[in-house]
Write a structure and sequence with these properties.
CATH superfamily of the largest domain: P-loop containing nucleotide triphosphate hydrolases
Radius of gyration: 18 Å
CATH class of the largest domain: Alpha Beta
Strand content: 25-35%
Number of strands: 9
Shape: globular
Number of domains: 2
Order of helices and strands: EEEHEEHHHEHEHEEHHH
Distance between the termini: 34 Å
Structural class: alpha/beta
Helix content: 25-40%
CATH architecture of the largest domain: 3-Layer(aba) Sandwich
Largest sheet: 6 strands, mixed
């Protein structure tokens, strides 16, 4: 289990983030834009701008190293790949592993010989997930990975993530503003507002009986509250 006893980020004297959480399987970070969700992922990945100061305290038995024990799936796969390089050249794994993971996400091996511009957004997102799976990560970080996709493609990506989570057994932190999606894919949930934890707990309990007015407001908005499958 990954335990973050403290994650504090400062910009000079201004505190941007001060949270703690426990991850035992799958955790959703939810909240409005600017709440600190993506900032948390950047801190874990070690990708914070140099002008920010980070104070972090993680349990010592969970060794975090981007590209080895941690894999990342961004919101926009087009920004994660070089448009001038074929997929196979950006897939840092042996050829047999590339094919295995590409097949695992439901794509034909032919995509390995294509450029990113030749693939759709949904195909590219699956390529990114395949690349992440090839690392056999202990921790998978996902930053709004289905936001730009239409409903049918979004559903395929979510089903794929659910299957890989069971098959590979990685821990998962899923950033989203869609509360119904968080409730579906993650066992635990942390609600963030202005860089603070408003409330946390099991997704089922939190969404059934939220304790904070902020969470209640999120749930009562038409966008966040609608069923993912409707």
């Amino acid at each position: 289990m990954l335990e973050c006893r403290k994650l504090r980020i400062l910009n000079g004297t201004k505190e941007l983030l001060n949270i703690d959480f426990k991850l035992n399987g799958s955790l959703a970070l939810v909240g409005q834009s600017g709440s600190g969700k993506s900032l948390t992922l950047k801190a874990i990945l070690g990708l914070l701008p140099r002008n920010l100061t980070c104070e972090a305290d993680f349990n010592a038995d969970f060794h975090l190293e981007a590209g080895k024990t941690i894999a990342f799936v961004p919101q926009n796969p087009f920004t994660a790949l070089s448009p001038m390089t074929k997929i196979s050249k950006q897939f840092f794994a042996p050829e047999i592993k590339q094919k295995e993971c590409i097949n695992m996400v439901g794509l034909d091996e032919a995509v390995l010989k294509r450029f990113p511009s030749e693939l759709s957004g949904g195909q590219l997102q699956r390529v990114i997930i395949a690349m992440a799976a090839a690392q056999n990560p202990k921790l998978l970080l996902l930053d709004e990975p289905t936001t730009a996709l239409d409903f049918d493609i979004k559903e395929r990506i979510i089903v794929l993530l659910e299957e890989l989570h069971k098959k590979i057994g990685f821990e998962m932190i899923f950033v989203t503003h869609e509360l119904s999606l968080a409730n579906r894919i993650c066992l635990e949930c942390v609600v963030l507002k202005d860089g603070r934890v408003v409330e946390s707990g099991s997704s089922e309990q939190l969404f059934a009986a939220p304790s904070s007015e902020y969470t209640k407001t999120l749930l009562n908005t038409g966008f966040s509250n609608r069923s993912f499958r409707e």
